[in-house]
Amino acid sequence: MRKTVAIIDYGSGNLRSAEKAIAKAVHDGGIDATVVVTDQADVVRGAGRIVLPGVGAFGDCIKGLSALPGMVETLTDAVRGRGVPFLGICVGMQLMATRGHEHGVHKGLGWIDGDVVELKPEDPTLKIPHMGWNELRAVAQHPVTAHLSNTHAPHAYFVHSYRFAAAHLNDVVAEVDYGGSIAAAVARENMIGTQFHPEKSQVVGLRLLQNFVAWRP
What we know:
This protein has helices spanning 15-28, 41-45, 58-66, 71-81, 91-94, 146-149, 202-214, and strands spanning 3-8, 33-38, 49-52, 86-89, 99-100, 106-107, 114-118, 130-138, 155-160, 162-166, 172-177, 181-188, 191-194. By secondary structure, the protein is α/β, with parallel strands linked by helices. The strands form two sheets. It has a nine-stranded mixed sheet with strand order 2-1-3-4-13-12-11-8-9. It is globular.
């Protein structure tokens, strides 16, 4: 049965780039799946994979997601209740946290313990936002990021001013050094999130998306 990969449109995200990249990953991997962009909870409810992108401030993004009728409830049921594989990208990853501290304190989805806090590199010459290509380092084994350990100096594209400070280090599966170690990818059970943009990270990012669509947690 053909599975649906649902990319959630809640008014914040690089939707078309994500759609094109995931469609290419599906095609190149020979995976029987349809990629759709949707703001409808009913479509998400029937999806076999769910992707939550995100660009902008934490508070605006959680507000936009909550404004979609039934979406947060549907996501919670699908991801936490039924174990549907979930990928959060950039702020979409950050929304998985307990709280976000960007322009006030905002409640997140609370799926992975931790807070989203301001990025403060130890090196004062490093610019904020953290923008550009940086090397990833796998710190734990995970099926979606397995290729990072087998790729020479894997690089990915970042754009962010806040970081996911995970409460439990075993939820972090990849890091990046930007004036100190930052969580580049977090994961728990059927959920994974990347601070970087796989849809903009060329071969490394496309392989991650392909791994995600094929993943059976």
